[in-house]
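Field log, afternoon session.

UNIT: design team B
ACTIVITY: writing a sequence onto a fixed backbone
BACKBONE:
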């Protein structure tokens, strides 16, 4: 076995491996499990590492192969829009969530932790935008790996071929097919161009105010005509400003003060944590909202109805009664929200350590252990019937 100090030098790659595995898998929690497995395998086999490639390449080989195994076992993680067309009935009851794994958001703090250089952070964020990660989920697993390694990480074809134990010709062929499929699935670059920070801040402040006030008219002014609304784990989604506003009006309600929004950032995009007021007046974790913008309009709203995500983002599960979540939105890659998420994740990007420790303690008290497949996709919000925005 290697000396502890010698092996811990490899920890400097943990954050970027986490982001790489997230791109492959579509879940920060699952990505962290794979990264943990990667380092465990590396520890066990480090004595046999001959240095014919760099330690970084060696770790990427282990991590990528572990991701390929996980994808083969679990399948892809879609967003609702990847399963079928939108609903045009905004008042019909929405069916309950299907039993399947969903794409999940990634806190920006974990992307920023990958690289400290602002330009590198910006480039890295482009590779984890929700639309990008959702599109990647539809590629065959090995094509997905090829495209990420070649186009996102800018690895040479020969190095990718060596990592995947295939030929350079196969890598180039797979890359062409992957690029063609992504070109059909992804919006044009100008379609996701966000405004400069002063305009962006004003737009997001208006969105938060409209949402908190239950002001559908004010919200309408912020939405592009073809805006889409998705709410995983619900499979139903809506497209078109009139239909989206119809659903929001029926479920958000006209009463001001039901929600408080706290600024966040996910997948290189603006986001909010939505707290819902309970009967006792306290605001409790309800959903993470991730926005896609084009210019000064919102083109997509993804509401992740999973209160458990608040912990991943380093956010409190409850706001005191009467406390506003309004603290001003910022486009800075490092701020109070990002610092909290990084602290929650740990300096090495480990997003699961505290969560798993608490889970183990609880399960020991209960005298039971859940099977692995039940641990990853638990959804406490939907389990209590919180299956819509209200």
């Amino acid at each position: 076995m290697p000396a502890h100090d010698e092996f811990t030098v490899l920890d400097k790659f943990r954050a970027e491996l986490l982001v790489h595995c997230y791109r492959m898998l579509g879940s920060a929690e699952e990505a962290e499990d794979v990264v943990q497995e990667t380092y465990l395998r590396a520890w066990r086999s480090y004595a046999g590492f001959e240095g014919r490639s760099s330690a970084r390449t060696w770790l990427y080989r282990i991590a990528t192969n572990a991701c390929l195994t996980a994808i083969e076992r679990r399948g892809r993680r879609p967003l609702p829009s990847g399963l079928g067309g939108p609903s045009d009935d905004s008042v019909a009851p929405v069916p309950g969530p299907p039993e399947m794994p969903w794409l999940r958001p990634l806190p920006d703090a974990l992307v920023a932790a990958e690289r400290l250089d602002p330009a590198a952070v910006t480039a890295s964020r482009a590779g984890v935008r929700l639309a990008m990660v959702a599109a990647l989920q539809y590629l065959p697993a090995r094509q997905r790996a090829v495209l990420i390694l070649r186009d996102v990480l800018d690895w040479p074809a020969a190095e990718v071929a060596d990592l995947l134990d295939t030929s350079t010709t196969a890598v180039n062929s797979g890359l062409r097919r992957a690029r063609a499929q992504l070109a059909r699935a992804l919006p044009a670059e100008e379609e996701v161009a966000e405004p400069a920070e002063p305009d962006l801040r004003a737009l997001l402040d208006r969105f938060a105010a409209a949402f908190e006030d239950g002001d559908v008219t004010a919200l309408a002014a912020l939405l592009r005509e073809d805006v889409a609304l998705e709410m995983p784990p619900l499979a139903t989604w809506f497209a078109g400003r009139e239909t989206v506003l119809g659903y929001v009006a029926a479920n958000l309600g006209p009463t001001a003060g039901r929600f408080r929004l706290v600024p966040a950032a996910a997948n290189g995009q603006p986001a909010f944590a939505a707290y819902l007021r309970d009967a006792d007046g306290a605001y409790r974790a309800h959903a993470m909202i991730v926005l896609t913008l084009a210019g000064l309009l919102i083109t997509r709203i993804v509401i992740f109805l999973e209160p458990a995500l608040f912990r991943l983002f380093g956010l409190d599960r409850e706001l005191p009664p009467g406390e506003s979540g309004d603290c001003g939105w910022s486009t800075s890659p490092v701020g109070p929200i990002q610092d909290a998420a990084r602290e929650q994740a740990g300096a090495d990007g480990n997003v699961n350590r505290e969560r798993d420790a608490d889970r183990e303690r609880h399960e020991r008290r209960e005298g039971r252990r859940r099977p692995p497949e039940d641990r990853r996709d638990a959804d406490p919000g939907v389990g209590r019937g919180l299956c819509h925005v209200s």
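LOG NOTE: The first helix runs from residue 4 to 8.
NEXT ACTIVITY: expression trials, pending approval
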